[in-house]
Every structure is written in C-alpha cells, then in structure tokens.
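Aim 2 progress update. The chain analyzed this quarter is reproduced below.
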Amino acid sequence: MRARFEAEVMPHLDAAYSLARWLVRDEQVAQDIVQDALLRAFTYFGSLRPGPARPWILAIVRNVCNSWFEHNKRFPQSPTEEEEDALAELPSLDAQGQAQTPETLLLHALERAEVNAAVMALALPFREVIVLREIEELSYEEIAQVLKLPPGTVMSRLSRARAQLRLALQAHRPARI
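Predicted structure tokens:
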C-alpha cells in the first residue's frame, strides 16, 4: 500500500503545498497542514476510489486548512510584506529566453505583484477556486470534487472571482490617454 500511495499521491505534494500556502498565507503553517493532510490521506488511502488522486489530496488539504482556520480563529486578509516580496520575484529571461532590461523586469514584477495581491485579497471561497483553476489547472469537475460543490456553483464562483480580480486590477491601472 505504501508504494501505491507514494506513486499516486506524492507527485501532487507541490500542488498540495501551493494550495495550503495560498489559503493560509503562512509557509510554516502550510507545511504543517500538508504534513497533517498526508497523514490523513495515508490513513484513508484504502478508501480512495479509482481515478485521479490529485483532487482527493487537495480536498484533504482544503479540509485541514478549514480546520486550522476554525481552531485558530484566524484569517489574515492582506498579504504580508514578505509574501509580496516573494511573489514579485521574476526570472531575468523573457518567454523567448532573451535577457530583459531592468525596466521590463520592474514592470513585470509590478504587474505580478498586483495580480498576486488581488488574488490574496479575495475572500476564501473565491481565492480557492481561482487557485485551483488558474494555478493548479484543475478542471471544473475536479474543483467540484475538491470543494464538494456542484460544477455550476464552481463556474459561478469562478466567474465572480474573475470579475472581482478584473475590478481590483482596473482600479490600480492608470487611465490611458
């Protein structure tokens, strides 16, 4: 069973950490949550139905995050300075592998920091659908499995989350002449 668990679940460890990090906004807590989620997943691995393990493990991570929120009665609303700095880091090459100028790097870093801050500012139900769809690239059906919601509700939340992101990003953009 251990070998099967490692083969099916462990490849999704990065996705599990990413989701926990986006939800709780604390690296140490996210690591603890993923560790707890993996222990729970291993305990209940025998009940995993045939199919992809990724939505299953992400659902467990989400549940552990929700338990953490309830237990700690804590829910940070804005990114910390460390988070903004870490999120703004960009590679020094563009998509074509060409070196970027300092000005281009700065513009990209500012845009990325704006988008990340806007995602972090979303309410948890909207942030989690954005993270699962746009960052983790789950299908609507997989997101519905993770969140235990009908696919229509997932699509509605995703639409509302994207609209909120658009509004937040437009508010920060200077008017063009």
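The first helix runs from residue 2 to 8. The mean pLDDT is 82. These observations will guide the mutagenesis experiments scheduled for the next reporting period.
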